[in-house]
Every structure is written in structure tokens, then in C-alpha cells.
């Protein structure tokens, strides 16, 4: 399944800005967002799990501490770390469990993480969310930043919701159906629209 590259991403930003005056204002005011990309694989999935319900800075600090404990960030090496060692690095008990389950799923073949790029968004989501602790948000973010898929709309992301409410002047927090319907106008580049809304959130 093809992912975005810098050129197609920039083209998508132009298309979205031309079709939505609110997105155009964000791009004009703050500049076009850059394509955010991380290597696909276990380490990136762990970093996204660490980002669940905490700030990006806090998650990165924890990830960096764990990475220093490993000669290489692989599922084999990760499972060799004790729970106590991971807790000392700042990993919560829940996230220790979730990340261990991911490592085990990869090693057992239940999560073929190295071939996810060849699968559809729906197939990737099904494989990831089958693992305890990995919900739609985690799957969406992995699809967006590791596989660079163009059409994800992670309505479970608080930053996206806050930005949409502000930019679209929605007043109260919209329900899931309202958010889904709003996102339809940005197909087939909802991932890029999300990045533009995130840019508004980060600068507001």
C-alpha cells in the first residue's frame, strides 16, 4: 500500500487549503506542516504506546531512557528487560504489559509487523487492535507516521478534537458521528488534514 512522500504530502496540503478556507488560514498563518515520519517497526510502536494519554515530551523522555538500556531496540531485547527496570525508566505497569504483549505477538507471528506496509489500513487496524492496550488511536497514529497512509482521521485524538472545535467554531465538544462527518470532506487526505489541525493546536 503506497504511503505519502514529501511531494505528494505537499500536493495534498495545497489541495486541502484550496478546498477549505479554515485550513488555508492555518497554513497561511503558521506555514504548511511537514511530513512526520518514523521508521516502521517495534520501536516506533512502543513509542506510540508510551504516548498514550501523556504529553509527547514525557513519552519521549521515557522512550529515550528505555532505548539507553538496549543494545538494539528489538522485541527480543525488550523482553529481556525486567519489569522493575522498565518501571525505573518511567514505564507504567499498564504500558509494560501492553508493550510486552506487542513484543510477544511479533515473535509468535500474530503481528507480522515487518509486512504491515503491504496490508490495507483495515487489515493493519485489525491486527493492531487485536492486542490488549492497542486501540484505534494507536492504530491510526502508527498508520499515519510509520506507514505514512494518507487517509486517517483519528477522532480519538484530543489535540485533533480541540483544534477542530476551535477552527470550526463548534462550541461544545462534538460527538463521534459529527467528527466523522466533518472528516469526510477531507478524503482522501484526512491524515494531511489532521496534520494541519495539529499545527493549529500546537501554535494556539
From TrEMBL:
Q: What is its EC number?
A: 3.2.2.21
Looking at the record, the residues that make up the HhH-GPD domain are: 57-201
InterPro entries, per this entry?
A: Alkylbase_DNA_Glycosylase/TA, DNA_glycosylase, HhH-GPD_domain
Recorded hits in Gene3D superfamilies, A to Z, give: 1.10.1670.40, Hypothetical protein, domain 2 (1.10.340.30)
Keyword terms, alphabetized? DNA damage, DNA repair
Superkingdom classification of source: Bacteria
**What does the record give as the reaction this protein catalyses?**
Hydrolysis of alkylated DNA, releasing 3-methyladenine, 3-methylguanine, 7-methylguanine and 7-methyladenine
As recorded in UniProt, coiled-coil segments are none
Put simply, this protein is called DNA-3-methyladenine glycosylase II
What taxonomic classification does the UniProt entry list for its organism?
Answer: Bacteria, Pseudomonadati, Pseudomonadota, Gammaproteobacteria, Cellvibrionales
